[in-house]
Structures are given as C-alpha cells and as structure tokens.
C-alpha cells in the first residue's frame, strides 16, 4: 500500500497550485477519452500475451482511476478510499455464498455460468432498489431518452459510451433476461438474413449509397449479427477484433507476395488480388 499512497500523493501534487499546468486544467470529461484508451491498451497487451507491457498498461489505467478520484476529492464528491470501499462492498454483496454462506450450500452457484447468472440477478435487484424512490431530475431526464421514469427498465443503466458492438450485446442480453429473445440460434440467424435482405432492398431502391434508409438498415443488420453472436455464446467485440487481425495478416501477406514477384499490389486487377488472397489463406 506504500506505493499506492505514493501514487495518490503524486497525483495530488500534479493537481496542486505548483503542479503540472496540463494536469491542473483537466476535467472528468477531458480525461474520460484517455481512460477508455488505456483500457483498450490493457486489452491489447493481454491479446498479445505481453506481460511486460501489461504491467505498464495496468499502471496507466490505475493512474486514470487515481486522476478521477483526485478530481472528485477536490470537488467534495468522494476520494480514492471511497472508490475502493465501493468496489469492496459490491464484490462482497454480489458473492453472497462466498462471503456470507458456506461452500457446500446447495443454493450456491455450481459453475461460472451459474455464478454469472447470480451476479446479474443481484445486479438487477440493485437497479430496481436504486430506482424504487421518487425520480429525481436525472432520472426524469433519462425518461425523456426512453428510460422508465423510475430508472427500473430492463435496459436502463447500459452505458452510452460503450463500443457499439459491446453495447448491442448488453442490450440484447438484458432484453433476453425478461423473455424478449428468439428461442433458437437458428431463428436469430434467420433474422440476420432478413435484415441483410432489407439492406439489399434499400440499396436497390436508393439513388444514393449514403441514404438514411441504408444507414438504418445497416444498423439493424449489425445489431442482429451481434444478437446472433450472443445466442451462440460468442463475444462479438472479441470476434470482430480477431477478424480484424486476420484481415490485416492476410492483407500484409498479399502485399509481401506481390513485392516478392516484382508486382505493385495496387496495380493488380481484382482477380489477381483475389488469387493472392486465396494463396495466403491456403498457406496459413
């Protein structure tokens, strides 16, 4: 804990009257993009299996937490200890059979999936309890954006700032918890096919490739694809990142093959480029 206290002291100094000019003028809003960026850099280090960078990136992410906590302390909202206390209390509260029960309790979750379901149930009860009082100005504002007046709707609380694929996954998962879901993955796949057909229809009827109709139908198609991924127990965000990496790897492979043969990749016909793609694919 000594080094953590040192980090807190460094952050306080940076924000002090004789501190860093840049750090002193930052706000929650201005720092938020850096917080998101650092979280992605943590995920990138994990995907690459780079433990040295993971250590550094976790430090950068911790600094973001400390930064926000320091600004909150200055404004009289809360401090770092309150942040730590909140997550400690939450972890104990959402693992009742670990901290308040017995390992042989027949009602205790017996698998990771059961524990996840228990976590979500407790979380849903917490949301309901938090919204059980009279709505305040914030919840009234939320109601104006489609949430229930008391903030207890099944979709309430899914952060707007999440990446779109991740948010679509969470929204469809929340809807499924209250029964709004296809029974079979095959039905969800049919929905994807239906949405794709609507994209084709909108594209055929539109004089412009950037029409509002095509924009809307593409969104519906992507949402349906994420819902199918959820139904098949696939993390859509992780799957798309993997597909991105595969595309990059194969594209670089095509460029290398073309260069080895004295060709300029961008000057090749589409058929020749496709032949290179298939060659790289067979070589994997």
Strand residue percentage: under 5%
Give the quaternary arrangement of the chains. single chain
Biggest sheet character? none
pLDDT averaged residue by residue: 87
Structural class: mainly alpha
Order of helices and strands: HHHHHHHHHHHHH
End-to-end Cα distance, whole Å, is 48 Å
Helix content: over 70%
**Number of strand segments:** 0
Q: Compute the CA-based radius of gyration.
A: 25 Å
Q: Which residue ranges are poorly predicted, with pLDDT under 50 across at least 5 consecutive positions?
A: 133-150
What is the overall shape?
A: globular
> Helical element count?
13
Structural account:
By secondary structure, the chain is mainly alpha-helical. It has a domain at 236-282. The chain is built from 13 helices and no strands. Helix 3 packs antiparallel against helix 4 (51-74). The longest helix has 25 residues, at 236-260. The protein is globular and about 65 Å long. Mean pLDDT is 87; it is low at 133-150.
Question: What's the short version?
Answer:
This protein has helices spanning 2-15, 21-25, 28-48, 51-74, 80-93, 96-99, 112-130, 137-144, 164-177, 185-205, 212-231, 236-260, 270-282.
């Amino acid at each position: 804990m000594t080094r953590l206290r040192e980090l807190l002291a460094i952050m306080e100094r940076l924000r002090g009257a004789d501190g860093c000019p840049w750090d002193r003028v930052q706000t929650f809003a201005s720092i938020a993009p850096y917080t998101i960026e650092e979280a992605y850099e943590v995920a990138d280090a994990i995907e690459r299996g780079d433990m040295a960078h993971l250590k550094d990136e976790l430090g950068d992410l911790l600094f973001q937490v400390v930064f926000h906590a320091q600004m909150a302390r200055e404004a009289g909202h809360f401090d770092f200890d309150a942040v730590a206390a909140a997550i400690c209390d939450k972890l104990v509260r959402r693992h009742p059979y670990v901290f308040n029960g017995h390992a042989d309790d027949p009602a205790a979750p017996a698998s990771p999936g059961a524990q996840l379901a228990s976590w979500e149930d407790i979380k849903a009860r917490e949301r309901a309890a938090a919204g059980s009082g009279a709505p305040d100005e914030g919840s009234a504002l939320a109601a104006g954006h489609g949430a229930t007046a008391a903030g207890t709707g099944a979709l309430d609380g899914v952060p707007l700032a999440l990446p779109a694929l991740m948010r679509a996954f969470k929204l469809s998962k929340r809807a499924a918890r209250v029964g709004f879901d296809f029974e079979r993955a095959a039905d969800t796949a049919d929905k994807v096919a239906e949405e794709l057909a609507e994209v084709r229809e909108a594209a055929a009827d539109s004089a412009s490739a950037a029409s509002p109709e095509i924009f809307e139908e593409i969104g519906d198609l992507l949402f349906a694809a994420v819902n199918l991924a959820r139904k098949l127990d696939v993390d859509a965000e992780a799957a798309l990142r993997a597909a991105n990496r595969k595309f990059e790897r194969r594209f670089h492979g095509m460029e290398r093959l073309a260069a080895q043969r004295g060709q300029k990749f961008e000057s090749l016909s589409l058929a020749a480029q496709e032949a290179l793609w298939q060659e790289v694919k067979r070589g994997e």
